[in-house]
Write a structure and sequence with these properties.
globular, 3-stranded antiparallel beta sheet, 10% strand, alpha+beta
């Protein structure tokens, strides 16, 4: 785990300045179009966007980490995470830009309206409607919210500044030029920088979880209030976005070209195969955990050629988590001795014009209505624990968190679904079972729901 870093007053001044700029959300459609024909010029332009955007996102999170309610910001683990974010911010703002001839710079960074020839502007991204679904949806940290929490909002030099939308700053095609060696050199060094930042943040999820445990202990075991739960939603949604942008850029620079992939985005993700893999993995976990010869059967009803433009890892993670929960509920309701009488879990996939919807139904006994709000809260299942599982803490995996018994499975899965304009809904019939609906936005035009 990286050591804790203290934030100097000079660095705080820069953080507050960058936090005064709004974040720029991008859509899946924009990222696919931008990275479909990568050249050294395209990669440089993508790197330039990240060198501008990532410090702003990191600065927003640093300011929030430092202004959390009820002394949560003072917890050692929260301070450690703040130090990591500040260190990554500092590394990015001082990363040396490439020294390019004037004609190369003009060709690369001309706006779509000025670009000549076949320059194709990026499509406009639409607002992510899940941003306004309900009170649990991640939203911006407003001054009113901070005042409600008893926290003084930091002064960031007046009203928030304005940035030009990404579709007006970039276009999807890059001129066919002979790129000087400085371009490839910059791309390689900046990619290594991003890889280092991603590694630095590997342990953020368990470290923040440990910070919440420290906070709960300091307050005498009180339940974590809704303001802190809302903070965790915002923080983890932002983390998903930061790691996705970094992972996409690293993949474009380092992975060999594949006809079906643009970075880590698969243009033709096979929904049936992804669901089947998630089901098989979840059944294996249940079989091993409960020492079963035959875990509950899972029926998959899905067209075998159904495709969507998506990140396969995100979809696999969400389906795996929901099926795992259904398997656990079914086994614990009927008992491990009822291997031949387990009712099947059904995974039904339907294709609509706007969404692909996956319904996962079980007969695991359902959830009392009074407990429904609690299933969306973090650490609901293990808040009595004083420390975290060391294996989880050191795993560094984005997808391992829900398996560690932290109660992160459902809330994190909902964030992954909402990140690209989808959603995750749950309807339960106490005494019978639960239906979970995973909505995937097949239009790919929703921008990130940035907190």
């Amino acid at each position: 785990m990286p050591p804790m870093q203290r934030v100097s007053p000079a660095l705080w001044d820069k953080l507050l300045h960058f936090a005064s700029f709004p974040q720029t959300g991008v859509s899946l459609q924009q990222m696919v179009m931008f990275g479909s024909n990568p050249s050294q010029g395209t990669l440089l332009r993508a790197g330039t966007f990240l060198a501008e955007e990532l410090p702003i996102r990191l600065a927003h999170r640093c300011v929030e980490l430092n202004t959390l309610p009820n002394q949560l910001s003072e917890m050692p683990s929260i301070q450690r995470v703040l130090g990591w974010y500040a260190a990554s911010f500092e590394e990015l703002i001082y990363f040396p830009p490439p020294k390019l001839p004037a004609h190369i710079r003009d060709a690369l960074f001309s706006t779509p309206s000025r670009a000549k020839g076949s320059a194709q502007p990026l499509p406009e991204a639409h607002e992510n409607v899940t941003h306004h679904v309900d009170e649990d949806t991640p939203g911006p940290v407003t001054a009113a919210l901070q005042e409600k929490n008893g926290v003084s909002a930091p002064a960031v030099g007046g009203s928030q500044k304005i940035r030009v939308p990404i579709e007006r700053r970039y276009h999807a095609t890059t001129p066919d030029l002979s790129w000087p060696p400085e371009v490839a050199d910059y791309n390689e060094k900046f990619t290594k920088c991003l890889e280092g930042i991603k590694r630095r943040h590997d342990s953020v999820v368990p470290t923040v979880a440990q910070g919440i445990l420290e906070y709960k202990k300091a307050r005498g075991g009180e339940a974590v209030d809704t303001d802190v739960q809302a903070f965790l939603d915002r923080f983890y949604m932002s983390r998903i976005g930061i790691r996705f942008l970094i992972g996409q850029h690293v993949a474009l620079n380092k992975l060999d070209a594949h006809p079906d992939y643009v970075g880590i985005i698969c243009r033709y993700s096979n929904v049936h195969d992804i669901c089947q893999e998630a089901i098989d993995n979840a059944r294996f976990i249940a079989e091993d955990h409960y020492a079963l010869f035959k875990p509950p059967p899972v029926q998959l009803i899905c067209p075998k050629n159904l495709q969507i433009q998506y990140v396969p890892g995100h979809l696999n993670h969400v389906v795996f988590e929901i099926v795992k929960n259904s398997l656990r509920a079914t086994v614990e309701r009927f008992g491990v001795d009822a291997e031949d009488q387990f009712p099947p879990i059904k995974v039904i996939v339907a294709e609509g014009k706007e969404d692909i919807t996956i319904k996962i139904s079980d007969e695991g006994g359902g959830i009392p209505r009074s407990a429904i709000p609690l299933i969306w809260t973090y650490m609901y299942t293990t808040m009595e624990a004083g420390i975290l599982d060391p294996e989880f803490e050191m795993s560094g995996s984005d997808y391992k968190a829900p398996m560690a018994g932290l109660g992160y499975g459902l809330p994190l899965s909902r964030l992954y679904a909402r990140y690209f304009g989808g959603d995750l809904r749950l309807i339960s019939m106490e005494g019978y079972g639960t239906d979970v609906y995973i909505h995937l936005n097949r239009l790919s035009s929703s921008r990130e729901p940035l907190p």
